[in-house]
Each structure stands twice: as C-alpha cells, then as structure tokens.
Amino acid sequence: FSAQRRVKLTIEQLISLGWIGSLSETDINQLNAVLNKYHIDSPEKIAHFLSQVMAESGNGVYTYELGDANYLSYLDYMLGNNGPGQGAFYRGAGYLQLTGKNNYRSFASYINDNNVLTKGYSYVSKTYPWESAAWFFSIHSNANTLAGNGATVEEITRIINGGYNALEKRRSAYQRAKSIFNSSNIYDSLSDTGYNPDSKVSDWMKTDSGVTFRYENGVFNVTKKDGVAVYGYPDNDGKMLDKLKVNDTVTYDYKYVNDGYVWISYVKNNKRYYAQVGFSDNHTSFKSQTQPFGNFNKVNIENLSYSDTIFDKNEKMSQWRQTDSGITFRNEMGRFKVTKDSGVAIYSEPNNDGKQFDTLKKGQYLIYDYKYVNDGYVWIGFEKNGKRYYAQTGFSDGKNNYKPNSDIFGVFF
Q1: Superfamily for domain range 321-412
Q2: CB 3.0-4.6 Å disulfide test: which of 74, 132, 182, 328 passes with 94?
Q3: Are 144 and 138 in contact (CB under 8 A)?
C-alpha cells in the first residue's frame, strides 16, 4: 500500500505565517495541489516559496499589481510587451506577480490554456493565483531546486524579484515559515483512518488473546532513517507487508504493546495494518533509554487512570483467601472513582503502618486488580511506575466487606 507522500498544509498554518488575505478551503486545496504538482514538497522548499509569496502579495492580500495603464506604461515595451497598454494587460499577476507577455506566453503553453495570453492579468489572478506562482518558482526558474539545496533567502529573492526589494520582510517570513513547517506537519496521512479531535485515549486493556492495547487516535510521523516495519498483526510472526519511510505520516486509532514492540494500527484500502513504532517495556510504554521511531501528534490524553494496571475483561473474580501474613484478599479487576471530598490515601502496603505515598483526589479514578481487607479498611491494589500500591476505599467490617452504615469513598465501575 505504499504511496507517494503528499503535502497537505492547513489554513491554520498559513494564518500562523501571517496570511491576512482571503483563505477558503478551495484556496488551501489549490495551494496543496500545486505544491504537489510542482514538487515544492519539503519544509525548506515550502518555507522559501511561501516567504516570497508573502512579500510579493502583501501577506496574501494582492493577486495582481495595482496601478492604471498610465502608471504601468513603463512596462509597455519590456518583457515581451510590444505596444501601448500591454504593460497593464500583462502586469504582475498571481501570488508571485507573473509579469510580461513572454512569461504569460510560456505559462499559457505549459498549462495548455491560451486564455492566459488572450485575457491577461485579470484571468491569471482569478484562475491561477497559486499555479502561476508555483510554475514560476519551480519550472520557469530554478528557485525550487536551489531551495531544496540550501539556498539563502537572498539567492531566492534575486531570482523571484530580480533584485532585493523587501528583503527583510522575506527573511522574516522565511524564519516564521521555518518554525511552522516541518516534516511532521506538512504531509497528508498515508492511511485512511480519520482523525477526531474530540476522541480521547482509553485505558489500557487486553484483547481476548491477551495482547495489551488501547484506543488512541492520533498522527504519527516517522523519524527512523530506515523506516518502520508494517505487519498484518501486531507481532513479528507474520510476513512484513511494507515499510513506512522516514517522514511518512499516518493517522492511527489503536496502540498495542506486544512481542517486544509498541505498535500503532490504522486502516488502508479497507484493511487493518500494524506498524512498529518503538521497543516496548513489555507493559504499556517504550523501553527505558530507547526512543520511539517517530513523533506522536494530536493525541488527546485527558482523565486517564491513575494506575498503570491493565484492564482485562476476561479476568475472573476469585474467592476470598489469605496472604502468608494473614491479610484477607481476592483477585478483582475493576475501576474505582473517588467521591470522597478529601480524596483517598495511597500506601505502599495495605496497612497504615507505612508512610502515605499519595492521595487519589476526588474525581480521579484508577484500574485495580486486587482487593484487600486489613487494618480497619478495604483496600484496592494496583500498579504504578513498576511498583505496587494500595488505596483505602472505605472502612471494613473486619471480615470481607464494608462497615455497616459507613460510606464507601468512591464508586466501583
């Protein structure tokens, strides 16, 4: 399912750059179309191109050069113009101010639209504001090639402007563009999975086959130089189907931890795929002292479980029994949310003898996997940061239940 990366800038990115002209979905779609068509498709190329556009168009306000025929008469016999009024007719048009009959003719020939030549600036400014600019930047000149090879703002300005007019403005726009556009946010997702900004990350759970997973809707951009492997299941037992290349971007909706790796999952062409995104700690995170194979963006992490315990719907509640030290306990998988105004105390053992580790605040919840009765309280046990902890959930009756006529400190769900 490999596909060519496609640039996909957003309205918000152009506004951040300082764009103050009109900017609709149609406009941004036209921009993205020409960026891909003319291979203005790297952060450096885009930064140079848009910084020149910002200077030439007054931050997107003007799509043609202002002035009447008398003012523009100095162009009547320049750049292929050969008569009175042609300076105005073939005035600067489009976001990079395509100017002169020779340039209009070359552009018309390239896109196979003679209306460019016969209708002049009004037609170009309305129909091809972005394409005329991209053509001039990439085809008519070598600015795009130079931009991809480390050219300076001065070098690109000399090509586009013919001089150094508004050089400081171009430099400033270029620096802003460099801070906005990078390889993690200029490309469209290669997957068909959608992104929902309102979706929230779920708790870690277990599949029926015992694989750790959670629902997580986000965008992943590959930074690993040799790419990341893609399989048809989140393990290494099957055949590798493909590789995501460096700078590839995918929108995903699930994350898994299995077989020594963290995986993300997404849909492409009605099939589900799984990509290795880093080495795992065999629990719910990346292996210590290792880096993920890319960057995660747009992940909505809010109100997650306080604990790191994984919820397993297949875990069965056991009978009450006793530890070797005589504490009553049972296996019990569930979630507990605090309703007590002052919160509930957390200890490193299910008793009050040690130092209180933390307080689970009102409204917080956690996933637990054991319940204990000891030292006058009912406790729940859970894991956090690789250690076991115990939270008081109410006063006990000294056996295996809560004290009559006493309030539990939260709700179980």
Answers
A1: SH3 Domains (2.30.30.40)
A2: 132
A3: yes
